[in-house]
Write a structure and sequence with these properties.
The complex is a heterodimer of chains A (162) and B (447). Chain A is an alpha+beta fold. Chain A has a single domain, classed as Rieske Iron-sulfur Protein (3-layer Sandwich). Chain A has three helices and nine strands; from the N terminus they run H-H-E-E-E-H-E-E-E-E-E-E. Chain A has a three-stranded antiparallel sheet with strand order 1-9-8, with no helix packed on it. Chain A has a three-stranded antiparallel sheet with strand order 2-3-4, with no helix packed on it. In chain B, helix 4 packs across helix 5, helix 11 packs across helix 14 and helix 14 runs antiparallel to helix 15. The chains are: A alpha+beta (162), B mainly alpha (447). Chains A and B meet through loops of A and helix 7, helix 8 and helix 12 of B.
């Protein structure tokens, strides 16, 4: 019994390094912050930056878009979040990870002229998920809102993501 | 050298060199027993070629794969270019890569026909259940290997296929994200992912070889099934494997390889996707992501579940749509795995089970149709029926329903209720009966 338990612990401690080696390595984790100057992004425009190998959407929202997002009846949403839970300190700057929460495609809607879907946010071409101007899922197979990454304003116009 | 536990079972060989080796390691005795005189049902049709053909494809894939690995570089910076270098600069690189690329497709063609053969003639039934399970394990390993191989050229389809498929695991509650980051070795599909996929793509074929060995070992314990589904009873029912089936397998293989070669030389990219000749770009998703053709039926099942599974009219959800799709996709293969326990009908061959035969052929058609739908965009409109818009998703849902109903409802129901046609006494009688009915039909038409 004791020998068996000791054996199991020994086996586990030998196996663990071989499992854990597959997790993100130290240098991969070290790349996990990005600083972006958004001073040049005019109202209504959006930029895409790369963070941890994924696109991050930064959209400078218009007052109309902010108002639209606030008016939505949260109880009707699939992933219930108010607009206030979707931004940090400045409502005009929406920062979300540009990866569809369904199966990881990059939604359209960053460039002018691209499809933005029925809710004027983003539209995923892979399986037809539509997001609103707050990055919330409104239509299609995706289960969750576009993820909001950890970020903070280190000055009025510089955002640090991660 | 008469001592030793195995000595008595051996007949000496004439050739002194062979005899010298065989005394020390009876490998020639073994080959002769398993592939020379091995008693094999005498009524095999050409469906029985596909095991040998699949074996040939496995060897082809390993040989071409090892040679490609001598030129390929598993690094996101140079992977795409190294594949292009193989195509343009490496001596016969284009040929070796096209053999490997199309080989994957033809390996799956052979295996799909092989699986159909097993289903149609009831080869999964007792006493061959374990043999069947090893087969399904080989199929799963093949799918994993093929998926990782498709990622290696690091084109757009490689990258986004890898992203979509690895993201399936994020559907697992609570630990999903951790599992996906563990698979990636980062926060998205990137260099660590490519590197480990290459390592595993090189490893898994040899694991397949190991399971194939178990598959064949189990086969040689129970012996082969045959088109009548009746076990051989006397010597009249069997033929020695060599030369009868070595010849028949060789002939079938030549025909199969001729078709395969036509693809390699005349339409090497017909089964691939042009987007994979665009280098991977993590910032842009192609408009329409499709997996390789051999995964399309399963991809269609995945997309068919686009609704949450829970209590209607409430917010209570057991499975979100995403998890439901993933469970349905893996479940569709689990159905094949447990087929021996879903179909308990005592008669093996569909030849004597008319209802099972119809249900199985409809099943085959529905799998092919799922494949067709899997290659089309989701929710693509097909027709207006009154105010109802029929889309590809609706068709996929109906076909998925039949897929599972075939295994979970039709097979258990027919096991109890289906009355089989009269059976011949033995394989020998089945063969003679076949001849008689052929003569009869000839007579009928002459008269």
């Amino acid at each position: 019994m004791t020998a068996g338990a000791m054996g199991a612990v020994a086996a586990g401690s030998v196996v663990w390094p071989f499992i854990n080696q597959m997790n993100p390595a130290a240098d991969t984790k070290a790349l996990s912050t990005t600083e972006v100057d958004v001073a040049s992004v005019a109202e209504g425009q959006a930029i895409t930056v790369m963070w941890r190998g994924k696109p991050v959407f930064i959209r400078h929202r218009t007052p109309k878009e902010i108002a639209e997002s606030k008016e939505v009846d949260v109880s009707l949403l699939r992933d219930k979040q108010t607009d206030e839970q979707r931004f940090k300190t400045k409502p005009e700057w929406l920062v979300v990870i540009g990866v569809c929460t369904h199966l990881g495609c990059v939604p359209l809607g960053q460039k002018t002229g691209e499809m933005r879907g029925d809710y004027n946010g983003w539209f995923c071409p892979c399986h037809g998920s539509a997001y609103d101007t707050s990055g919330r899922i409104r239509k299609g197979p995706a289960p969750k809102n576009l993820e909001v990454p950890m970020y903070s304003f280190i000055s009025d116009t510089v955002i640090r993501i991660g | 050298m008469s001592a030793g536990p195995h000595a008595s079972q051996r007949t000496p060989f004439q050739n002194p060199v062979i005899e010298w080796v065989d005394q020390r390691l009876p490998i020639f005795t073994m080959v002769n027993k398993e592939y020379g005189v091995f008693p094999t049902p005498k009524n095999f049709n050409y469906f029985w070629n596909f095991g040998a053909i699949a074996m040939f494809m496995l060897v082809t894939m390993i040989v071409t794969g090892i040679t490609l690995a001598m030129h390929y570089a598993a690094n996101t910076g140079i992977a795409f270019d190294s594949v292009e270098r193989i195509m343009r600069d490496v001596n016969y690189g284009w040929l070796i890569r096209y053999i490997h690329m199309n080989g994957a497709s033809f390996f799956f063609i052979a295996v799909y026909i092989h699986i159909f053969r097993g289903m149609y003639y009831g080869s999964y039934k007792a006493p061959r259940e374990l043999l069947w399970i090893f087969g399904v394990v080989i199929f799963l390993l093949m799918m994993a290997t093929a998926f990782m191989g498709y990622v290696l050229p690091w084109g757009q389809m490689s990258f986004w296929g890898a992203t979509v498929i690895t993201n399936l695991f994020s559907a697992i509650p609570v630990v999903g994200t951790s599992i996906v980051e563990w698979l990636w070795g980062g926060f998205s599909v990137d260099n660590p992912t490519l590197n480990r996929f290459f390592a595993l793509h090189y490893l898994l074929p040899f694991v397949i070889v190991g399971v194939v060995f178990l598959h064949i070992w189990a086969l040689h314990v129970t012996g082969s099934n045959n088109p009548s589904g009746i076990e051989p009873k006397t010597e009249k029912d069997t033929l020695p494997f060599h030369p009868y089936y070595t010849m028949k397998d060789s002939f079938g293989l030549v025909v199969f390889v001729a078709i395969y070669a036509a693809f390699v030389f005349f339409m090497p990219n017909a089964l691939g996707h042009p987007d994979n000749y665009t280098p991977a770009n993590p910032m842009v998703t192609p408009a329409h992501i499709v997996p390789e053709w051999y995964f399309l039926p399963f991809y269609a099942i995945l997309r068919a579940i686009n609704f949450d599974i829970g209590i209607p009219f409430t917010d209570i959800v057991f499975f979100e749509a995403k998890l439901g799709g993933v469970l349905a996709m893996f479940g569709s293969i689990a159905m094949v795995l447990i087929m021996p326990w879903l179909d308990k009908h005592p008669v093996r061959s569909a030849r004597y089970r008319p209802k099972f035969r119809v249900a199985l052929l409809v099943f085959v058609v529905s799998v092919l149709a799922l494949g067709k739908i899997g290659g089309m965009p989701a929710d693509a409109p097909l027709a207006h029926i009154g105010s109802f818009l029929l889309t590809t998703t609706h068709i996929a849902q109906i076909l998925t329903l039949y897929y599972f109903a075939f295994f979970l409802v039709i097979l258990p129901y027919l096991s109890k209720r289906e009355r089989p046609l009269p059976m011949p006494e033995s394989i020998n009688d089945a063969v003679l009966q076949g001849q008689k009915s052929d003569q009869k039909s000839e007579k009928c038409c002459e008269a």
